[in-house]
Structure formats: C-alpha cells, structure tokens
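In response to the reviewer comment on reproducibility (Comment 2.3), we provide here a single inverse folding case reported in full, input and output, so that an independent group could reproduce the run without further information from us. The structure tokens appear first.
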C-alpha cells in the first residue's frame, strides 16, 4: 500500500533551464557552453556541481550564491519554471487521498520560494533546511520521518540515478525515475535503474494511475 508520494525538485518539478542560464551569465560564459559542460559532467557520472569547477577551478558555490543575492540576481523560482504536468499531477494525487511532499537538494531560500507558489502539497523541505543533502542516507531518513507510512509505503520521485533512485531504494522507499532533464534521459534505461526503480515514467501525469489505488 502506498500512503505518501515525495518529489525531488530540480528537473522533476522545475525546469532548471532558467537557473542554469543565470549561472552561465554570472560566470560570463555562453549558455550553450555551460550546457555542454553540464552534459559532459553528467555523462561522466559526476555531480553537476563539478560543472562549475570545470569552468572556474576553485569555484566556491556557496560564496557565489551569496554574491548573486547581493547583486540582486539571486535564485528565483516562478510559476513559469514548473513543468506543465506538475500542478495537475499533484492535485490528482491529493484527490486520491495520498499525502504529497517535496524534498530536494535545494537551498533554504528555494524552500521559501516553492512555498510561495502554493502548490497542492502537504509539506515542502530542502536539504538547505535539513542541513543534509542527497545521496546521504540521513536525507532519506528525514524523508521517512516527515512522510506518513512505513518506508515501503513512501514513493520518492526524482530524475537522478545516484541521488534519487539508488539511495531511496537503499532506504527502503519505492523510487520512481522520471525521464526528463539531462540525468533522467541519460539513466532511464540504465540497468541499475531497472533494478532499483519501481517505475520509470515520462510524465508526472502517469503517477496518479500508478499509485492512486494504494497498491
């Protein structure tokens, strides 16, 4: 029986194109160059934060985030950043009687911005608030603590094999990989994903039909 569905944020609920573009502009590199390096880092199975190290060795992400905020070009999340299937899918899951949460590797500010969108969810949390990030097992322990149900009654939806699917399964959750964003497409047919993911989906619109009956 499924009681709760918890969502990753970037490339699961949000299209990260605008934020990646903002980082490219901040670094002073063409947006297509940033995207190409991001793709190469992704294909090599490395963390996307390493994109910054390739472009600017020694790059301090936390410090540069602070400087962007001070310059008035800091992190923003708007309705237009949501993928079109997000609101209908979240609402359908709620209507089916499921508890719906959001928990991803984002800043504490991102949590505030997400809450301002008034999404049809029960709780929103981020790694910046929890002070622990995926794929650390403690992140998924926090998911288990805040979502109703035993671990195998909680679905975790994300786009990343190593940050979402594998550690969620290791924690006893039921992982779902969504095939979008660079990581989702790269790993949708990966044998590790085939082993660990409950389902691989192309749209969040598929979820209510898969989990809505509580199976």
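Designed residues, in position order:
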């Amino acid at each position: 029986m499924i009681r709760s569905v918890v969502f990753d944020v970037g490339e699961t609920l949000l299209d990260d194109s605008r934020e990646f573009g903002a980082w490219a502009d901040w670094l002073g590199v063409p947006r297509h160059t940033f995207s190409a390096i991001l793709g190469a880092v992704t294909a090599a199975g490395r963390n996307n934060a390493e994109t910054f190290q390739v472009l600017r060795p020694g790059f301090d992400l936390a410090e540069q985030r602070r400087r962007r905020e001070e310059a008035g070009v800091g992190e923003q999340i708007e309705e237009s950043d949501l993928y079109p299937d997000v609101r209908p899918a979240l609402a359908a899951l709620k209507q089916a009687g499921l508890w719906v949460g959001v928990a991803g590797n984002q800043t504490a500010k991102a949590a505030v911005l997400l809450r301002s969108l008034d999404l049809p969810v029960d709780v929103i949390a981020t790694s910046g608030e929890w002070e622990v990030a995926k794929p650390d097992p403690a992140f998924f322990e926090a998911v288990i603590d805040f979502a109703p149900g035993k671990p195998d009654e909680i679905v975790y939806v994300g786009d990343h094999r190593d940050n979402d699917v594998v550690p969620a399964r290791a924690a006893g959750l039921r992982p779902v990989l969504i095939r979008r964003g660079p990581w989702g497409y790269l790993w949708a047919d990966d044998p590790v994903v085939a082993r660990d993911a409950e389902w691989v989906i192309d749209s969040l619109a598929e979820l209510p039909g898969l989990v809505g009956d509580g199976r």
